[in-house]
């Protein structure tokens, strides 16, 4: 089987690579071991007719105009600003922690200056910053850490805050104002017809052929490609020769409520201290869909299963570097995306990286 380009994985990284090379006259074969395109951003109507994200909520946001412009070729957008509440001691509080959170939690009436002083008073100064616990304690102190962060992290990662790299908690902002949006990017919108429809348009090109339910291991020696773009787990590509890179997995329990228009007040509610699941997302908030019922998903972190999140510890990063040396030595194969690069990527970051790589290669073939 001969093709110019082999793309392994039909998520954001693979779809962008496939579209770019196909649009420049290259023949492209896209394979995916799942039965659908779109990767973890795949969405579809459930049995009740509600549009749901099968692999948990995907909220698109970016500060990169070129990413917005590129994806806008394949979708219209619905403006949506995500809001999250956290269930603590039976009450719901805005997260990221902000002025409203502090005033509600401690029955205060502070302004921005007062909240800044509050944080300064309760924080435990940590120097140097060695891990995520240091980050959180340094920012908001022990009580807020224990109420909002510590147990959520333990559920999500199976590790204590003190065992995770600073990058994990460093992603979580703390605000002194009353901005209760989860993201503050300039562009915050959802594909108007869903992610899957957007992916269908991206891959709808005469130069692109798609083969689903196809495992790379079964075809890697059967496809004659000039260049290969791999977005699967990096350790699997090299047959786990250094051992398995740890990933955190998730299981999803979807539920529909007939004749119930709304289940919760915002798109996502976190449960840091109660239950086995970490959060519940109600999809109609995200999509704006009108329906007499509503559908939700509960997320349960797991140790085994499909890989979703690279586990950010120094030991795991060292193991990744061993695999990266092998990857860098591969001729004609490029590794892109969250799993292949063993890093946490937002969707827009994946798109930006794929656009940059394809541009470099198309302008300077090697």
From TrEMBL:
It is an enzyme of class 5 (isomerase). Keywords: FAD, Flavoprotein, Isomerase. InterPro entries: GDP_dissociation_inhibitor, UDP-GALP_mutase, UDP-GalPyranose_mutase_C. Residues 147-344 form the UDP-galactopyranose mutase C-terminal domain. Its EC number is 5.4.99.9. GO terms for cellular component: cytosol. SUPFAM superfamilies: FAD-linked reductases, C-terminal domain, Nucleotide-binding domain. Gene3D superfamilies: NAD(P)-binding Rossmann-like Domain. GO terms for biological process: small GTPase-mediated signal transduction. Its cofactor is FAD. It comes from the Bacteria. GO terms for molecular function: flavin adenine dinucleotide binding; GDP-dissociation inhibitor activity; UDP-galactopyranose mutase activity. Belongs to the UDP-galactopyranose/dTDP-fucopyranose mutase family. NCBIfam families: UDP-GALP_mutase. This is UDP-galactopyranose mutase. It comes from Tunturiibacter psychrotolerans.
């Amino acid at each position: 089987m001969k093709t110019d380009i082999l793309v392994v994985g039909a998520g954001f990284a693979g779809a962008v690579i496939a579209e770019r090379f196909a649009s420049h006259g290259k023949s492209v074969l896209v394979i995916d071991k799942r039965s659908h395109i779109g990767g973890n951003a795949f969405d579809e109507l459930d049995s009740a007719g509600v549009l749901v994200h099968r692999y948990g909520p995907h909220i698109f946001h970016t500060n990169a105009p070129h990413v917005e412009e590129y994806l806008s070729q394949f979708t219209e957008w619905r403006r949506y600003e995500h809001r999250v509440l956290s269930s603590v001691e039976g009450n719901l509080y805005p997260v990221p922690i902000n002025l409203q959170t502090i005033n509600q939690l401690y029955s205060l009436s502070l302004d921005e200056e007062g909240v800044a002083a509050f944080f300064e008073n309760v924080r435990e100064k940590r120097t140097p910053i060695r891990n995520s616990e240091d980050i959180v304690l340094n920012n908001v102190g022990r009580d807020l850490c224990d109420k909002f962060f510590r147990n959520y992290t333990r559920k999500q990662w199976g590790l204590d805050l003190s065992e995770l790299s600073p990058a994990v908690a460093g992603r979580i902002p703390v605000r002194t104002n009353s901005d209760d949006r989860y993201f503050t990017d300039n562009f915050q919108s959802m594909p108007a017809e869903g992610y899957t429809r957007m992916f269908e348009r991206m891959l709808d090109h005469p130069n692109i052929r798609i083969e689903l339910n196809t495992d790379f291991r079964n075809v890697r020696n059967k496809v004659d490609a000039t260049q290969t773009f791999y977005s699967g787990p990096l350790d699997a590509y090299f047959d786990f020769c250094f051992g398995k890179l740890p990933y955190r997995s998730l299981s999803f329990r979807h539920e529909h409520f007939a004749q119930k228009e709304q289940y919760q007040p915002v798109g996502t509610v976190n449960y840091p201290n109660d239950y086995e699941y970490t959060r519940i997302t109600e999809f109609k908030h995200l999509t704006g869909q009108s329906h007499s019922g509503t559908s939700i998903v509960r997320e349960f972190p797991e140790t085994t299963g499909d890989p979703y999140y690279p586990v950010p510890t120094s030991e795991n990063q060292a193991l990744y570097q061993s695999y990266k040396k092998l990857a860098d030595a591969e001729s004609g194969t490029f590794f892109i995306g969250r799993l292949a690069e063993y890093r946490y990527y937002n969707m827009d970051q994946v798109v930006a990286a794929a656009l940059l790589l394809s541009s470099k290669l198309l302008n300077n073939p090697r």
